[in-house]
Amino acid sequence: MLTILLPVILLISSCSGGEEPAQAEREFTLPDDGIELVDAWARPGRENGVSAVYMHVLNGSADTDTLKALSSSVAGLVELHETYDRGDDMMGMREAEEPFFAPRSVTSMRPGGLHVMLMQLNRALTEGDEIDVTLTFARAGEITISAVVQSP
Predict the structure, then answer these.
(1) DSSP 29-96
(2) What number is the average pLDDT over the span 36-65?
(3) What is the pLDDT of residues 114-148, one digit of tens each?
(4) Which helix (H) or strand (E) holds 137?
(5) Exposed/middle/buried for 15, CB within 10 Å: 0-12, 13-18, 19+?
(6) Are 120 and 73 in contact (CB under 8 A)?
(7) Do 56 and 143 touch, CB atoms closer than 8 A?
(8) What domains lie within the chain, and their CATH numbers?
(9) For residue 146, what is the enclosing H or E element?
(10) Could you tell me the pTM of the whole model?
(11) What whole-number distance in Å separates Cα of residue 104 and Cα of residue 114?
């Protein structure tokens, strides 16, 4: 039973709490149109384990855009997850139900909230590594970003 619970506990703790490294609240300038991804970073993770990627999604378009797919060469499975309050002072994590990005908005993916979950890592991710993550949007199309691995 412990072998089943330990990875689940590590998965939830790796995606909750903490602050973004060297990131303070700041103002963003939206692109004139479309989606721009900024300030991407990822947590360290062990081979066959998990990690999370955080960033800000800037939608300068007049239209809502929808995230259709995610991929990364370092993970066997990539999903958009959200942290939520399960009640009784317990937090949980689940696949995001509505991966929509409102028009002329900034959506912050950060610890304890929305994030890109990397599962089934095919190698260890250590501080200083750079990894690529591809997000495919219905309107903006495919956008590949580079994220530096950092400890929170």
Answers:
(1) PPPSSSEEEEEEEE--B-TTSEEEEEEEEEE-SSS-EEEEEEE-TTEEEEEEEEEEEEETTEEEEEE-
(2) 97
(3) 999 999 999 999 999 999 999 999 999 999 999 99
(4) strand 130-137
(5) buried
(6) no
(7) no
(8) 2-149 (2.60.40.1890)
(9) strand 141-149
(10) 0.81
(11) 18
Q: What percent of the chain has pLDDT over 90?
A: 69
- Structure-token pair, residue 88: 């009784």
First and final C-alpha spacing in the chain: 29
Pick from 36, 41, 120, 44: which is nearest to 76 by CA?
120
Pull the structure tokens for residue 94: 């689940």
Q: Do the beta carbons of residue 106 and residue 62 sit within 8 Å?
A: no
Binning pLDDT at 50, 70 and 90, where does residue 85 land? confident
* Distance of alpha carbon 39 from alpha carbon 42, whole angstroms: 10
